[in-house]
Design brief:
Largest sheet: 8 strands, mixed
Shape: globular
Bound molecules: nicotinamide-adenine-dinucleotide
CATH architecture of the largest domain: 3-Layer(aba) Sandwich
Number of helices: 16
CATH topology of the largest domain: Rossmann fold
Number of domains: 3
Helix content: 40-55%
Distance between the termini: 39 Å
Order of helices and strands: EHEHHEEHEHEEHEHHHHHEEHHHHH
């Protein structure tokens, strides 16, 4: 099946980004929202984004004009009747999304694929609002859509292989890299793997164990702007809070429970970069530390030991979750690593990192943290223990989660 006509429902931050990249890639796109004003704001955002790409020399005048000419606007959902693919990007409200899916199912011809850009609502629950669950799929873009290369393609329980294939090919035809999420797993892959580390980072601040800057420096991501606290500030503390809570509600696994500090900061309007303050202060236009230093006059060797503990508490949660995602058959090791690299701009994925450290070292560190804290979140998943027992230790043994044999 060939996709030609695309209907994007919702002209907000994600919807207008998806409409832009689809139109830029030559698809005829109809963007739909509830009012002319919302549509106008969406098109304005597209014009401005294309204008920036043009001024940076990344696209030509002709490409910008062709993209804009490919976009039609409507406030009528009935106009989805001619589409091959619908991408839904309305607000994250399960009742709203389910009613929209039921309506699209009534309007669209049988061949139309219905995709959702939901961050956390199970695809299977949206699919069950339609008479075509085999044609319902998740297409989880990352914002800003024109800049972020990752798209997670998510299978609901009843999504057909053909629908996954077509959705995957379409997303790649937009110049995106895709990660196939083979099970309808809360948080999909990128968020699922990285949220436990982000939460642990907030807990260390809450406990007074480390300051935001120490945490970002410990990971080596401070200068590049990809430390956990910077990632949370950039995405928005409210967004991180909601994403963690959604996974917690689905799994009741305490490692996803947002810490009280995060909740208080959201309530106080400290939402990160967009509100001028989060774990850093941006009100001067720069990123400045303002959380108090936690240990004044701390001897250097104590500090070094504390920083090693900070690093272990940051590395382990994401590594262990990445292993659990592979063990559950949700995604391949390659896709798990790609999700972290592209979704969070990390220099390498957690499984590549585990392979480099040595899976036996990772296992020992996890066991030690588990012994010290008694917390189940540090207990290594069976797959990691089995791999070490089998001598699959990563790079040094030629095989771990990836193969290093020439
Ligand atoms: N913001 C992000 O970084 C991000 C990242 C990945 C996924 N998502 C998901 O994408 C979806 C959209 O998020 P957003 O940030 O673009 O929200 P947004 O609020 O910017 O945009 C939502 C748009 O949907 C419109 N809308 C509401 N009801 C509608 C209806 N019945 N028909 C047509 N349009 C309707 C609204 O008027 C609004 O313009 C959510 O499910 C969100 O979880 C967001």
């Amino acid at each position: 099946m060939e996709i030609q006509e695309v209907f994007v429902l919702g002209a907000g931050f994600m919807g207008n980004g998806i409409a832009q990249v689809a139109a830029f890639s030559g698809y005829r796109v109809t963007m739909c929202d509830v009012s002319e004003e919302r549509l106008e704001a969406g098109v304005q955002a597209i014009r401005s984004s294309l204008g920036k790409l043009l001024s940076k020399g990344r696209i030509t005048d002709g490409q910008r004009d062709a993209a804009l000419a490919n976009i039609n606007l409507t406030t009528r959902m009935e106009d989805a009747a001619g589409s091959d693919l619908v991408v839904e990007a309305v607000p994250e409200d399960p009742a709203l999304k389910r009613s929209v899916f039921a309506e699209l199912d009534r309007i669209c011809p049988p061949h139309t694929i219905l995709a959702s850009n939901t961050s956390a609502i199970p695809i299977s629950s949206l699919a069950s609002a339609t008479s075509r669950p085999e044609k319902v799929v998740g297409l989880h873009f990352f914002g800003p859509v024109p800049l972020m290369r990752l798209v997670e393609v998510i299978s609901g329980l009843r999504t057909s292989e053909e629908t996954m294939r077509v959705a995957d090919e379409w997303a790649r035809s937009l110049g995106k890299e895709t990660v196939l999420v083979l099970k309808d797993h809360a948080g999909f892959v990128a968020n699922r793997v990285n949220i436990p580390t982000n939460i642990e980072a907030v807990r260390m601040i809450e406990e007074g164990f480390a300051a935001p800057e120490e945490i970002d420096r410990a990971t080596g991501g401070y200068e590049a702007g990809v430390g956990p606290m910077q990632i949370i500030d950039n995405a928005g503390l409210d967004v991180g809070y909601r994403a963690a809570l959604a996974i917690y509600r689905d799994t009741l696994d305490p490692k996803f429970l947002p810490p009280p500090l995060l909740k208080r900061m959201v309530a106080a309007g400290l939402l990160g970069r967009k509100s001028g303050r989060g774990f850093y202060d941006y009100s001067t236009g720069k990123r400045e530390s303002y959380f108090p230093a936690v240990r004044i006059g701390e001897p250097e060797e104590d500090r070094a030991a504390r920083m090693q503990a900070v690093l272990n508490r940051l590395l382990l949660p994401a590594v262990l979750e990445a292993v659990a995602v592979v063990e559950a058959g949700v995604a391949t090791p390659e896709d798990v690593d790609r999700a972290s690299r592209l979704g969070f701009n990390l220099p390498f994925g957690q499984l590549e990192m585990a392979d480099s450290l040595g899976l036996d070292t990772v296992l020992e560190t996890a066991m030690a943290l588990h012994r010290e804290t008694g917390h189940p979140k540090f207990f290594p998943p069976p797959l990691l223990r089995r791999m070490v027992a089998a001598g699959l230790l990563g790079r040094k043994s030629g095989r771990g989660f990836h193969s290093y044999v020439e």
